[in-house]
């Protein structure tokens, strides 16, 4: 197993410092994008819509899932994400459609943009450029164009702080969140101090995320989350797949308690590779906290490895940002253990090439 304290080896695998710089800059990504999106000018009638639909895929989708679940009780109007080629039938002039694509070239998002235009929906976009920027400019729709100075890796899933902060800034700007802005700013400051414990210069014996990566090496991780952390669980599974080139899943309590526990007996190989990582929060509702404990018991009764990780933030936003950082560092350290370059996604690129043929 590769030594995770060997920074020279890590830099060689990753082709330089761009990945580490991008992951370390998560707080800066959040801060920059949140501040900039707050200052976008919108037509006044954009603030009077009845619902919001966000179109996005992959690293431009999971930040929306994070926001949807984290602020579930604070959103003033329905807020959903759309992750295919088709729009909901209810979309009309009273719907705000947000087109979310880091590259600006995502096929599904561009097609949904044309369909939203035909439905006379109100439209805005968030991107670094590409065809999405051209579409918005052609039709005189508002745009938050990201200047990704804190994501030299160029990978959306590694620069996803831009989309979490950017979408949050748009929601605050439009008045759709019942929350004080300072809570976001304080959570970003908390994150800045927290990630110093996860960085590559912290030796493994003092670095909980390096230790966690070692435990997940050659395993099939199931990330277990609930309530306000549900979207972050999805993000970590996505990052593990793309960054570490490793299979992973995320599951949600209480839903998994209604079926998954009966599916742990077979095949026999499960006992060798499966590991459940319970991301526990003292801010979960009491019934959910009890379910976490009992679910862990049942998984262990099936002779499957479990890991219990308790989040430290003092409120839900801090804990969500904390888990976002954990996912970025964890998937990066796993990529090192598997000797993979997180900056390339050959099969995703191959798929897109074949799709265009």
UniProtKB/TrEMBL annotation:
- Keyword Isomerase assigned to the entry: answer is yes
Please list the GO terms describing molecular function.
carbohydrate derivative binding; glucose-6-phosphate isomerase activity; mannose-6-phosphate isomerase activity
Q: Which Pfam families match?
A: bact-PGI_C
Which part of the chain is the SIS domain?
42-185
GO BP annotations of the record are: carbohydrate derivative metabolic process; carbohydrate metabolic process
Source organism superkingdom: Bacteria
Is-annotated flag, keyword Ribonucleoprotein? no
Q: Which InterPro entries match?
A: Glu6P/Mann6P_isomerase_C, SIS_dom, SIS_dom_sf
Key words of the record? Isomerase
The UniProt family comment states: Belongs to the PGI/PMI family.
Q: What is this protein called?
A: SIS domain-containing protein
- This protein's species is Candidatus Roizmanbacteria bacterium CG23_combo_of_CG06-09_8_20_14_all_35_49
């Amino acid at each position: 197993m590769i030594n995770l304290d060997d920074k020279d080896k890590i830099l060689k695998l990753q082709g330089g410092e761009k990945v580490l710089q991008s992951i370390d800059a998560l707080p800066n990504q959040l801060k920059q994008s949140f501040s900039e999106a707050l200052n976008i000018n919108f037509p006044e009638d954009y603030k009077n819509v009845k619902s919001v639909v966000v179109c996005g895929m992959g690293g431009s989708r999971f930040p929306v899932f994070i926001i949807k679940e984290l602020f579930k009780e604070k959103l003033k109007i329905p807020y959903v994400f759309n992750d295919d080629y088709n729009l909901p039938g209810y979309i009309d002039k009273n719907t705000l459609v947000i087109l979310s694509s880091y590259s600006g070239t995502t096929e599904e998002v561009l097609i949904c943009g044309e369909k939203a235009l035909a439905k006379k929906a109100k439209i805005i976009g968030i991107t670094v450029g590409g065809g999405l920027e051209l579409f918005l400019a052609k039709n005189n729709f508002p745009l938050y164009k990201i200047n990704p100075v804190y994501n030299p890796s160029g990978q959306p899933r590694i620069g996803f702080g831009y989309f979490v902060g950017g979408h949050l800034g748009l929601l605050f700007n439009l008045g759709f969140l019942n929350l004080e802005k300072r809570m976001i700013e304080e959570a970003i400051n908390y994150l800045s101090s927290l990630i110093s414990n996860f960085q590559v210069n912290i030796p493994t014996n003092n670095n909980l995320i390096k230790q966690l990566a070692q435990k997940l090496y050659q395993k099939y991780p199931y990330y277990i989350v609930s309530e306000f952390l549900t979207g972050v669980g999805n993000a970590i599974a996505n990052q593990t797949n793309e960054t570490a080139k490793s299979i992973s899943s995320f599951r949600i309590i209480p839903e998994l308690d209604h079926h998954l526990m009966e599916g742990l007996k077979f095949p026999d190989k499960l006992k060798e590779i499966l590991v459940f990582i319970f991301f526990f929060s003292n801010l979960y509702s009491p019934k959910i906290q009890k379910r976490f404990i009992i679910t862990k018991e049942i998984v262990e009764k099936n002779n499957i490895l479990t890991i219990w990780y308790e989040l430290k933030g003092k409120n839900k936003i801090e804990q969500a940002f904390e888990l976002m950082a954990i996912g970025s560092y964890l998937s990066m350290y796993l990529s090192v253990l598997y000797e993979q370059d997180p900056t390339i996604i050959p099969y995703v690129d191959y798929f897109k090439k074949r799709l265009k043929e």
